[in-house]
Amino acid sequence: MSKPEWRISEGAVPYAEALAAMEARVADIRAGRAQELIWLLEHPPLYTAGTSARAEDLLQPMRFPVHTAGRGGQYTYHGPGQRVVYVMLHLRRRHQDVRRFVSDLEEWTLRALARFSVRAERRAGRVGLWVPRGPREDKIAAIGVRIRHWVSFHGLSINVEPDLSHYDGIVPCGISGHGVTSLIDLGLPVTMADLDGALAETFEEVFADTVAEAA
Fold first, then answer.
1. 173, 192, 199, 206: which is the annotated catalytic residue?
2. Of residues 21 and 211, more confidently modeled
3. What CA–CA distance (Å, rounded) separates 94 from 135?
């Protein structure tokens, strides 16, 4: 199996446009008409509602457009300064295991962040990655996926330098009592290109074995 295509989009990609592109690509991957895809992009400011979203967690419904995402999870925010990574992999040709796939996405993100000395951590019952900051924990990366006929789409988002006040309009991922952070908020002058490079360098550390096993 060939390695996935990597695509980096410049500028903010409208959410509806990205969703339509993912839907088409997933169908083509399943049919064997296209190779797998890792798509890195940014969105204009918006909120997305996952399949478990609760109405009461949308605190400011008029602040930004709200989109139904179709992925797992609850409400999350996307916007400039946040790297969104849409991961379209054919899991039937890799590990046909959704839990392992989510864990691999977390591990991939952990390794990329570690390149900048960020010691993010998993938390039981809380999907995503968290940075301990004294008495509190702040979320730096979110994960939400959908699987159709064993092809994945949606994926993860990592905060590089978004406007963190934009999270005030929701209860992020339905979890209250914790904050959100970013690489810049942690005092790390990391650019989007820096993060993209770290993601590219660490992807095969986590996913290459699945390609080898499927070959």
1. 173
2. 21
3. 40
